[in-house]
Amino acid sequence: METQIFINLKEKSEALDKADKLKNFRSQFLFPKHNGKNVLYFTGNSLGLQPIHTKEYILQELKDWEQYGVEGHFHAKHPWFSYHEFLTEKMAKIIGAMPEEVIMMNQLTSNLHFLMVSFYRPYQRKRKILCEFPAFPSDIYALQSQIKFHGGNPDIDLIMIKSEKDDYIIDDEKIISAIHQYKDDLALVFIGGVNYLSGQVFDIPKITKAANNADVICGWDLAHAAGNIELKLHDWNIDFAVWCSYKYLNSGPGSVGGAFVHQKHLQNFDLPLFAGWWGTNKEERFKMKAVFEPMPTAERWQVSNAPVLSMAACLASLDIFDEATMPALIQKSKQLTAFLEEMIIQINNLFNKEVFRIITPKTRGAQLSVICNVSQPKKLFDELIQHGIIVDWREPHVIRFAPVPLYNSFEDIYLLGEELKNIVPKFL
Ligand SMILES: *Cc1c(COP(=O)(O)O)cnc(C)c1O
Q1: Model-level pTM greater than 0.85?
Q2: Rounded to whole angstroms, how far apart are CA atoms 366 and 194?
Q3: Pocket lining for ligand 1, CB < 6 angstroms
Q4: Closest CA relative to residue 217, chosen from 300, 123, 289, 283
Q5: How far is the CA of 47 from the centre of ligand 1 (A)?
Q6: Ligand 1 atom closest to residue 244's alpha carbon, by position in its atom list
Q7: CB burial class (10 A; 0-12, 13-18, 19+) of residue 32?
Q8: How far is CA 319 from CA 41, 54, 94, 188, 419, in A?
Q9: Minimum-distance ligand 1 atom for the alpha carbon of 109
Q10: What is the tens place of the pLDDT at every residue in 157-189?
């Protein structure tokens, strides 16, 4: 019986890999090695793997720097003056935005601060911010510090909506009813579109609509959503969003972040912002005038000239997304995650125990988070790492598995199952 189960998984993984139209993309990525073999990599939600062409993209800029020096701003193959523009349309396609609504700049948390300057405008009673709990710590620090910056008290003005249970899952309706409850006091709703810990995908359009109907701005952290799930930021009418490019977007550690500002706000030149020279009318930029001429696009929020080397890495990856396309990636992602779920259930059945309790709900992207129900869960995690299985640990007992459609195969999941079959009994 035991082997029968896994023979079925093996056969199924082979059939699924054979039918996978995206399978050739795997060879465009570099896998870390463990004892001379590729690791089983399931942490693309934390740091995406390096595309093989990234080096060439960066080398191109180093060569142009060598050859042109400062002239590279206009004479490089991809002129640095407008380098960020090479990313805009490709990024816009991934998140369902109009190009003018998107700007790749800075990094995630910095972008959140810059956009909150424009979109967190407490006045009179309306001062509170509503977010989910647990939200990513950096987001919480940003929200708390913005409240303090405006003279508020985070203990009073930051409302965190918690799960009813021990599984970190928050009903969308709970958030919506909290918006109704606090609407006279709320200035901003800001939530992670895909919760980093549980992998839950929130109903972004529905929550946004509820906030907007209550006359509250709604922003989203899409760190775990961009390049992972279907997004239609423009059609969903969301006010603003920020994300990073080093998770599902494979642009390398600390690479350039992204920001979205809905078209409906772009003509509002009264919005306050922290300005810099990369946000002024580009025709006039090098005339070094003392007057800021705000651009009518999300580029207005750009303060500094673009970090070309990290943008080159971002471009290398966005070119892959352009070729693979989000709809195809999402289709494979659903199959991969379903297969991972099936494998985990079989492991549980094998040991007659819910060794791994899946907390991620069905509204999910390429991630399953499990509560690890063994006496020493951290030791189990350590043992996985020692076997070249790269997964991610969150205290006190959560393991996150992210099978990424660009480079994970169904066989990876089958092999993970084989390893778990051997490792789990040591911890029962
Ligand atoms: C990864 C992540 C961050 C990281 O922020 P940086 O500014 O890129 O360091 C912030 N928020 C969320 C929700 C994340 O998942």
Answers
A1: yes
A2: 10
A3: 107-109, 136, 138-139, 192, 196, 221, 223-224, 244
A4: 123
A5: 11
A6: 8
A7: exposed
A8: 22, 10, 11, 34, 34
A9: 7
A10: 999 999 988 889 999 999 999 999 999 999 999
